[in-house]
Amino acid sequence: MRLPLFLVIVLAPSFLFAQTNWNKDGNTYTTVENNSIVEVTLPAMTKTTLVSADQLAPLGLSGRERNAGARGPRGGGELSYQFSEDHSKVLLLSKPVREYHNTFYNAWVFDRKTSALAPIAQTHILNAKISPDGSKVAYVFNNNIYSVDAGAPGAQAIALTTDGNDHLLNGWFDYAYSEELYCIDGFRWSPDSKSIAYWQNDLSKVGIFYMINNTDSIYPKIIPIPFSKVGEPIAKARIGVVTLATRSTKWMNIEGDPASHYLARMEWTPDGGHLITQQFNRAQNNSKLMLSDPASGASKVIYNESDEAWIDLKAFWSHAGGTDWDWIENGKAFLWVSEKDGWRHIYRVTLDGQETLLTKGNYDVTSVNGCDEKKGYLYFGASPDNATQRYLYRASLHPANAAGTSARANAAPTRVTPDLAGTHNYSLSPNGRWAMHSFSSHLYAPATEWIALPENKPLVEADAITKHLTPTPLGKQTSFFTLTTADGVKMDAWMIKPASFDSTKKYPVVFYTYSEPVGATVTDVANVARASFFNVDSGYIFISVEGRGAQTPKGRAWRKSIYKSVGWINVNDQAAACREILKWSFIDKERVAVFGSSGGGSTTQNLLFRFPELYKVGLASAGVPNQLIYNTIYEERFMGVLPENRDAYIKCSPITYAKGLQGHLLIMHGTGDHNVNYQGEEMLLNELIKYNRQFQFMPYPNRTHGITEGEGTIQHKTTLMANFLRQYCPPGGR
After folding, report:
1. Which of 23, 126, 205, 671 has the most CB atoms around it within 10 Å of its CB?
2. Does residue 275 sit in helix, strand or coil?
């Protein structure tokens, strides 16, 4: 996924909730504070220490990240943890080591009854999880799944799978699955703790991409990474259930050719009677949900959906946390999301595939936040009137479908969030009674409060967000606006002017862009620009414009108009917006720059090459000059499956237009980028050299996609960009 660092930061307010690990009762949660695991009871917010810092001392925590991740192996910080269902035991994962798309841990189990702390694995393991009954811990090591008694001193781990190797992965995934389908954790404990359902990825046909480490030894090191490129073979996935007692696996009989589909999601049904799996075809425009019998492997499709473009995973657009299956009615039904009526809406789906629309109207759902089944409320994010903002809404879980249904069931969704313009995120308790509410806008810095629902009433009045609104430094200089291009496309945008702005003078403009389908840049949050390498008061006007195809709540047609045209429609929209802005009297047409990272780097290159009459300076970081060499899942989702759409790949790639460069271009890329391969930039360099197009190029040795690793890297990159901008696009009003 070509997601720039900018977008990760923009979404940060919602990820504050990673520190909140709700208990099933919905009235308590656990978190890490001062190297202790504490339980907080609502609404009084009383705290009880469950595992003290002294008891965790053998883990050697530094305390640098005191409120560390509480969501298990994917949680952030030094310490991740998981409780058994009765909270008598807790699995502790410490000393995380990030290696490309996976995080490895050391594992311990703490027994709260005996206060015993026992090591599970002191070699780095993947995806460790404690069984629901607390008796076992399972994890992945050397491509196989192991189980070990939880907390038993000297207990020996037992291999539940034995066929794993570098090309056969049990319980975890290759790069493409991890990056593009958000598949990290590759196995699931059964509710009765007697079996484990898991993915097996066969990479035997997947091509190997080689990176070279030239700096860490006197001889270069070759780093091989299985990487499915467009049109090439993909990882073949299947799902099995291994029984701990026999260590034998039963494979699920899922229809279709594993070489031509993806198994994107899998969970146990709450009663443990079945597995439920989501299957995509390779083009990702058909999604099937199926139930499988874990004993026989027999599978049946219960829900089938197709789209003329592609179908989104929930994780692709929702940042409210939770899983893809939001179970209701004691596991008899679940909440599901579809764009089938032209808008992203929530449906109730039963295990026999019957669906009921729960949200209705010409607006998009932006998150599924939870529900209060006792009161019959469904909570979700939306912003019907302003695509740059987010609010919490409430609808009925029981829409009118029969005589005698209450009037409330027929009512339109109700906005829960108070009248405070900006971006609001909510982490709801499982019972829907409480939530952590986070807010920010271009005017106000991020703030949080605990609230009671459905009233949205602060639990502690003195802590209410409205009592602690702190202005942002650039709020008064920032404005949001809309513009309409000559083609009639209406686009949202923001602009930041220098504090000393003089409307009688002309200023240089710096456009910030991303403009691909997995993100948005025009969102009403604090510090919208995130352009830390620029001094906004040094004499530049900064603008970002959101064109078609961006992940914004403007309906299916807006988002999917970019299908098979990533790099064309979105780039044309950026140029059309630029033409309108250059008509403004205070914009200097000769000092126009554009900056972007990842997909924004590709857009920046395309703009410099195709529209030299508009853009004079470009700063492109970690872009994709040639779409034919990127990964299968991303490109084929948005651009179609080769060979039938090959011409569009070529038409939309920056490398096709390298000859058109006339302005000043700075290209930056990490040689260790396993996401957007460095290889693409070298192909582009050859094209630029062939046509004697002059440019500046900065490779960052062994840095990955964000170009952040290594001492001095961030400062070097920001200084480089700022100097380049000042040299070729001088600041100040004239």
Report:
1. 126
2. strand
Q: How far is CA 47 from CA 38, 179, 476, in A?
A: 6, 37, 40
Residue 261's closest CA among 239, 281, 283, 233? 281
Kindly state the tokens that stand for 674: 């396993």
Residue 19: band (very low, low, confident or very high) from pLDDT cuts 50, 70, 90: low
Q: What is the 3-state secondary structure (H, E, C) of 361-404?
A: CCCCEEEEEEEECCCCEEEEEECCCCCCCEEEEEEECCCCCCCC
Residue by residue, what is the 3-state secondary structure of 674-685? Answer: CCCCCHHHHHHH
Contact indicator for 314, 326 with CB cutoff of 8 Å? no
Low-confidence winner among 253-267, 529-543, 603-617 (lowest mean pLDDT): 529-543
**How far from 299 is each of 62, 204, 254, CA to CA, in Å?**
48, 26, 6
Distance CA 632, CA 230 (A): 4
Give the SS3 label for residue 103: strand
User: What is the C-alpha separation between 146 and 130, in angstroms, rounded?
Assistant: 12
CATH numbers and ranges of domains, the chain: 475-728 (3.40.50.1820)
pLDDT score of 462 more than 70: yes
The answer to whether 639 and 564 are in contact (CB under 8 A) is yes
User: How high is the mean pLDDT of the chain?
Assistant: 91
Residue position matching structure tokens 């609104």:
469
Q: What residues pair up with 108 in beta bridges, in sequence order?
A: 92, 119
Q: Which two tokens stand for residue 678?
A: 């460095």
- Distance, in Å, from the CA atom of 318 to the CA atom of 308, rounded to the nearest integer, reads 22
Query: Residue 694 contacts by C-beta under 8 Å, 6 or more apart in sequence?
Result: none
Cα–Cα nearest to 579, from 647, 485, 686: 485
Give, in order, the Cα–Cα distances in Å from 415 to each of 384, 427, 467, 483: 10, 16, 21, 28
CA proximity to 181, closest of 199, 166, 206? 199
What gap in Å lies between CA 599 and CA 619, rounded to an integer? 13
Extract the tokens encoding 562. 């970019």
Gap between the Cα atoms of 292 and 197, Å rounded:
11
Alpha-helical (H) ranges within 278-434 are 314-317
Angle (CA) 280 284 289, round 5°: 30
The reply to whether the predicted model has a pTM over 0.90 is: yes
Core vs surface per residue 497-517: b (16+ CB within 10 A) or e = bbeeeeeeebbbbbbbbbbbb
Q: Strand (E) positions, 560-708?
A: 587-597, 617-621, 664-670, 696-700
pLDDT (tens digit per residue) in 152-204: 778 899 999 999 999 999 999 999 999 999 999 999 999 999 999 999 999 99
Query: How does strand 423-428 pair with strand 434-440?
Result: antiparallel
pLDDT tens, residue by residue, 529-574: 765 556 656 799 999 999 999 999 999 999 999 999 999 999 999 9
Is the per-residue pLDDT at 67 higher than 70?
A: no
Provide the 3-class DSSP secondary structure of residue 128. strand
Distance CA 196, CA 200 (A): 12
Which pLDDT score is estimated for 401?
52
pLDDT of residue 6 exceeding 90: no
Give the DSSP letter of residue 229.
B
One-letter identity of residue 636: E
